[in-house]
Amino acid sequence: LDWSTDRSAGATLSLLLEGVLPGVEQRTRQALALLGPGATSSEEAPSWWGAEPRGEAGVLVKVTHEIAGLSRLLAALDTAASAAGVTTVLRGSPVVGTALVALDGPVTADGLAAFVADLRSAQQEFGGSVVVLEAPAALKDGLDVWGPVGGLQLMRAVKQQFDPERRLAPGRFVGGI
After folding, report:
1. What is the model's pTM?
2. pLDDT in tens, 125-144
3. Is residue 96 predicted with pLDDT exceeding 80?
4. DSSP for 61-120?
5. Which of 67, 81, 87, 156 has its CA 20 to 30 A from that of 24?
6. CATH classification (class only), 59-148
7. Other CB atoms closer than 10 Å to residue 60's CB: what's the count?
């Protein structure tokens, strides 16, 4: 899926169908029938296939979602992007439930914090998580890049047990572990 909150950019859903030729041809016909008018097939992958989305802000966010929660994730992205005054580009696998989101346009630290907070407040609706993978230091300073994490107390106890002096990557993981 290649999708943007900028409606003029459109969206593209691409399927990779593999196997023996008769089976691929049959599944292609079935997919085209399901997708309806305007759907096309090609033996070539789109130019963006396998590439991470990139935006001028230098911010990359990983989102996960329940497979049935994709439409709710896209709605939450629309809301969060609009509130933060940014455009987003999402690329991911709806079938796996993971996507990368790049922020485009000028982004402030407050704008990024608001965007992430809005998405995290909606994550119960789409059944996933929101993690900031990349952001310029000026935008990331003070931002909780990991978000809420289940099992944090257990992780802290394991860290304390095996690294009581906090020598191994101190503060680099969730919750400052």
Report:
1. 0.81
2. 999 999 999 999 999 988 99
3. yes
4. EEEE--GGGHHHHHHHHHHHHHHHT-EEEEEEETTTTEEEEEEES---HHHHHHHHHHHH
5. 67
6. alpha beta
7. 18
